[in-house]
Amino acid sequence: MSTAEVYDYIVIGAGVQGSFTAYQLVKRKKKTLLLEQFTLPHTRGSSHGQTRMIRKAYDQNFYTHMMDEGYELWAQLEREAGVKLFRRTGLLVMGPENSRSYLDFKSTLEKNKIPMVVLTPDNFNQHIPNVILADGDGALVDTTAGVLYADRALKVAQGQFHKLGGVIKDQEKVTDIKPGLTVTVSTSAGVYQAKGLVITAGAWANELLAHVNLHLPLEVMRINVCYWKEKVPDSYHVNKRFPCFLLTEGEEAKDHIYGLPSNEYPGLMKICYHYGSETDPDQRDKKTDCADIDILRRYIARYLPGVIPEPAVVESCMYTLTPDRHFVVDRHPAYGNIVIGTGFSGHGFKFGPVIGKLLCELSLGEVPSYDLSPFQISRFQTMKSSL
Fold first, then answer.
1. Is 5-47+151-218+324-380 assigned to CATH 1.10.10.10?
2. Average pLDDT, whole number, for the chain?
């Protein structure tokens, strides 16, 4: 058997979180290997696609706090690479005005002094054309929000990592992980060793964690990513300053509908339901569930008069969900030199630079920049005992 290649750190999974973690490590002068099981770029995980939403509007303070720095880190990467990664559009948040979910969004923005505009039924259409505000719904705009160019951002993060001396190896599926003072990672093509390992494998996280005797309560969902045709071209276009939007229909995140202005496909708006059907990540295209598309058809027919209520393009993506829909950012309970970032629950892309920084800090044994108690693995044991 050939001698193992030795690195300071190995990161498994070259999605947005793994790519930014590897980038942060190499910026700290650490010899870093980024491993990916598929050929890059690929559409098999959760980080592909042309656009994602970026926002400070959240119903929890800790996410809003993290996004303050998130915006700064995205802007820093734009400057370093000389590439535009973000477009400001604002985010329209709508929902039953007395519902807990809508009020939590409003309260978090107010508490954190995030620039916002509260709209009324009287002035709504002056600000937001071609949308009908439902009776009893409140509406506000997080004016800091916008569109992230996701594929471009991922390519830039990997490019900067490589430019700083990082090593990326794709088409290498991890077959074994041996923990210890030195971690040994075996793949379909080689054997590597490092003093620290970061696992950011998305939907495949538990498959890898089984090698280190850990199982997390993660649910993998296939999400339909739907694009809908404008009746009049450019009615909802990013250039016309049409905002992203989030409809907080019920009390749970899974009831949310979200949309982005037409941009990536000419004349098509991206409008999706924030939920899907459970799937095996390796078999996700064998089974499709269209219940969410029926919900979206009804919503669009009623509230978006300028959109044809039939999807023109349907793609797919995966969410890796935790029971509370908060992230996992923590060290392995038994092996302090194995760090885990997973369970980003369909809202993690915008946090990529911050999560990368946090996973880097955990790997280096530093005090993390934020309170990570909402993201600790131990919370699942607490939840389990309270059920």
1. no
2. 91
